[in-house]
């Protein structure tokens, strides 16, 4: 549940970008950072290795404005996608209000997508929650790749029941980045409005 | 959800603000923050003489993440938690201590400030803050107006197109 500070009239929500390594999670945040006006966002913090792979997380605070007098702030996080950083991924998921699952369209990444989704389910369950309890959006990234997997194939392994809203994206060109963020933000705020 | 929700309002918020302000005065630290476990700032006070603080969102996030990582390390070593963290540099230091399971008290101060004084006053304040936080958990659920959802969507349209 979001942190609500009634006296300061603030609503704070945490959105986590999840997905396999190199799928474009950090790229999404960099695009948001680059395109949102400076007065609406804070500094982007990246805890990365020397070769720019996410080590712990990337973080970007975003001020969405006021809703019914409440200053609404979203904290965007990425997790490290590489398999061996699972302890870090579990920590980042603490207190999550919404998830963007960034899938990779590269032909050789179908299994990595499926394993990352399974890992997400397992990590959420370790926190005692079902993946269906958290607002989640699927972003199918890298649609410009030669030989990109079909969206049907990717959805079949990640969301076989077709329960998730999804967007196609080419995050490094900014395509689909804001559509994805907008959809997940809307789901989180609608859930908040219902008092869940 | 995964973490308990925090709804800080009314008397509780005023009491927290007073405690944080008193702690700032008693210790002589630059900045005093109460941060929730998700990395959001619940309360923040800074000394009149202190320079402009660094980005508080970033400070809070790194403090909460560091505490989460330290707690995970403690569990691996068979401890329930390591309650306090101290990071000392040449010019200054940061002291972080848990306020129950929901928040972290964070003090940032110059190296001229005695650490013992900081810890002494911080622990007294934490006793009071823990009691305030305990009452917060019993706060009634919050209801937004019926228009909240549609207003939120309009705001997103304005910002994100």
TrEMBL record, chain A:
Domain of life per record: Bacteria
This protein's UniProt keywords: GTP-binding, Nucleotide-binding
Entry-linked Pfam families: Arf (PF00025)
InterPro entries: Gliding_Motility_GTPase, P-loop_NTPase, Small_GTPase_ARF/SAR
PANTHER family assigned to the protein according to its UniProt record, in alphabetical order: ATP/GTP-BINDING PROTEIN-RELATED (PTHR42708), GLIDING MOTILITY PROTEIN MGLA (PTHR42708:SF1)
Protein name per UniProt: ADP-ribosylation factor-like protein
